[in-house]
Amino acid sequence: MEGAKRLEAVLVAHGQPGEPEPQEAAMQALAAQVAGCLPGATVRGATLAAPGALEAALAGLARPMVYPFFMAEGYFTGRVLPARLAAAGSTASQLPPFGTDPALPDLIARVTVSAARAQGLDPSAAALLLAAHGSQVSSTSKDSTYAMARALRPLVPFRRIEIGLIEEPPHLADAARGLGPAICLPFFALRAGHVVGDIPEALAEAGFEGLLLPAIGEHAEVPALIAAALRRGAG
Fold this sequence. Notes:
The protein is of the alpha/beta class. The chain is built from 9 helices and 8 strands.
């Protein structure tokens, strides 16, 4: 594809300031997968947490698209990332974040319904629990999660969709308690502290006996979803 040959993009996640290397490696691996869907394109990955990583990823690119691998529009996508781009002297165009991609509800619907059926669960008799970050200082994470729940309702046969958050009410342990048959999907981009620690701990506290899925950002179809978003941005 001629457009793909000229396409340049940088995928950017928040990362973990205390231990930036694993998520930095994960973003570079994701970028390679996305590039595999876009022959001839240059796609790089970086985190905000790794010192100099974003600037290194931007180096030598004329006017790349920047794809925020975040679940919501908020402080980091609205202020921190644009400021870092400006400080680097980049004329990159910033796309909407992963969590707001119009193709994401369909992917989540297919993933969760398939997972329920694979477990022998009738989705119409089970609940879907979205576990998300939340924030004590901004409503954007919570609002984006509720927007996803609204988008999912006409797409899935689950008897109910519940929201559980890590950093604000409704807290995940409270939302997970007494759900009965259920599927829990972490509404997160990367596998990190909240996904590997806080979510399983909250579910254990609640006595949750349902299925805990990997974070949606880890799904095998995500590179193709991002590639489609980059094609739209380039078009």
